[in-house]
C-alpha cells in the first residue's frame, strides 16, 4: 500500500531527491568507500557478512512514544553490538555547537518542523563513522519523504542494509502526557504544549506516510508502546534478535 499523499508521483520524489543531490554525492561516496575498504581489510566478497556491511534499524514513532528509551536499552546490551544514533540528539548537539547551521536548526525544532535532510544525513554519516560499529539503531529518522529520499540517495548501491523500521505505536494523548512530564526536566524548547501540538501534526502528516511506506515494502515491525517500559522492551528485543 502506498500513501498517495506523500508519495503522490515519482516526479515529486525525484525532485525531492535532486534538491539535495549535490551534497549527497559526497555522502554516497563516503558510504561506498567505507564499504569497499571494509571488504578489502576483511577479505570478504560482495554480499559478505553482517560485520562487513553496516546494518541499520530505523526506530520510528511519535514524539514521546519511547524511541530514545528503547534504543538506549538495546544499546546497553553490548553483546548485541548496536550504536544508538538519535537524529534529534545529533541536531540538538549541532545547534548547541554554535555552528553556522545552529540558528536554522533551532527554528525548525521550535516549530516542530523537520530540518532539511542533507543536514541530518550528514550528521548521521559522521556519527556512524565515529562509532566504529557496524550495527545502528537510527532513532527518529527518516521522518519525512525528504529524509528517506536523501538516505536512499546517499546509500545507493547497497552500501548499507536497512533491516527494517521499528514502529512504536502509541496513542497521542499518552505521548502528550509523557512529553509534558519529560518537559519538567528536559530543558527542551519543544517539550511544551504548543510545540507538541505542532510536532503531532508533523508526525501525522509527514512521518506516518513513511511508516506506511516501510509497511508496503514488507519492512515494518510494529510494537504497541502503550505498555510499561519493560513490556515494550521485551517485544523490541524480540524483533532485534530476529535479525540474522
Ligand atoms: N513505556 C513507557 N511508559 C511510560 N513512560 C515512558 C515509556 N517509555 C518512555 N517513557 C517516558 O516518556 C518520555 C518520552 O520517552 P522517550 O523515550 O524520550 O520518547 P521519544 O524518544 O519517542 O520522544 C520519557 O520521559 C520516558 O521516560
Ligand atoms: N529526522 C529528524 C529528527 C528530528 N528532527 C527535529 C525535529 C523534531 O521535532 C526534533 C526533535 O526530534 P526528537 O526525535 O529528538 O524528538 P522526539 O523524540 O520525537 O520527541 O528534532 C528533524 O528535523 N529531523
TrEMBL record:
Family assignment from sequence similarity: Belongs to the adenylate kinase family. UMP-CMP kinase subfamily.
Quaternary data: Monomer.
Cofactor(s) annotated in UniProt: Mg(2+)
This enzyme's EC code(s): 2.7.4.14
Entry's localization field: Cytoplasm; Nucleus
Function text: Catalyzes the phosphorylation of pyrimidine nucleoside monophosphates at the expense of ATP. Plays an important role in de novo pyrimidine nucleotide biosynthesis. Has preference for UMP and CMP as phosphate acceptors.
PROSITE patterns, sorted: ADENYLATE_KINASE
InterPro entries per the UniProt record, alphabetical: Adenylat/UMP-CMP_kin, Adenylat_kinase_CS, P-loop_NTPase, UMP_CMP_kinase
Gene3D superfamilies attached to this UniProt entry: P-loop containing nucleotide triphosphate hydrolases (3.40.50.300)
Full protein name: UMP-CMP kinase
Binding site for CMP: 147
Pfam families: ADK
Catalytic activity: dCMP + ATP = dCDP + ADP; CMP + ATP = CDP + ADP; UMP + ATP = UDP + ADP
Annotated organism of origin: Ectocarpus siliculosus (Brown alga)
Note describing how the cofactor binds: Binds 1 Mg(2+) ion per monomer.
Record GO terms (molecular function): ATP binding; CMP kinase activity; dCMP kinase activity; UMP kinase activity
A single Gene Ontology CC term: cytoplasm
Amino acid at each position: 500500500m502506498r500513501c498517495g499523499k506523500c508519495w503522490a508521483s515519482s516526479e515529486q520524489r525525484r525532485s525531492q531527491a535532486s534538491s539535495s543531490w549535490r551534497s549527497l554525492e559526497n555522502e554516497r561516496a563516503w558510504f561506498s568507500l567505507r564499504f569497499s575498504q571494509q571488504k578489502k581489510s576483511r577479505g570478504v566478497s560482495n554480499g559478505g557478512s553482517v560485520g562487513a556491511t553496516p546494518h541499520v534499524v530505523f526506530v520510528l514513532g511519535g514524539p514521546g512514544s519511547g524511541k530514545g528509551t528503547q534504543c538506549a536499552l538495546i544499546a546497553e546490551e553490548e553483546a548485541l553490538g548496536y550504536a544508538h544514533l538519535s537524529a534529534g540528539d545529533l541536531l540538538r548537539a549541532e545547534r548547541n555547537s554554535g555552528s553556522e547551521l545552529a540558528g536554522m536548526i533551532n527554528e525548525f525544532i521550535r516549530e516542530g518542523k523537520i530540518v532539511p535532510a542533507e543536514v541530518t544525513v550528514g550528521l548521521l554519516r559522521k556519527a556512524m563513522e565515529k562509532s566504529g560499529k557496524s550495527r545502528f539503531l537510527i532513532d527518529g529518522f527518516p521522518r519525512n519523504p525528504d529524509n528517506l529520499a536523501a538516505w536512499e540517495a546517499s546509500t545507493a548501491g547497497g552500501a548499507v542494509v536497512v533491516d527494517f523500521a521499528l514502529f512504536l505505536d502509541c496513542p497521542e494523548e499518552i505521548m502528550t502526557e509523557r512529553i509534558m512530564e519529560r518537559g519538567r526536566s528536559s530543558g527542551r524548547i519543544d517539550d511544551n504544549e504548543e510545540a507538541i501540538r505542532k510536532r503531532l501534526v508533523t508526525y501525522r502528516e509527514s512521518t506516518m506516510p513513511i511508516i506506511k511506506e516501510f509497511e508496503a515494502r514488507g519492512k515494518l515491525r510494529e510494537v504497541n508502546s502503550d505498555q510499561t517500559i519493560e513490556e515494550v522492551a521485551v517485544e523490541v528485543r524480540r524483533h532485534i534478535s530476529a535479525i540474522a
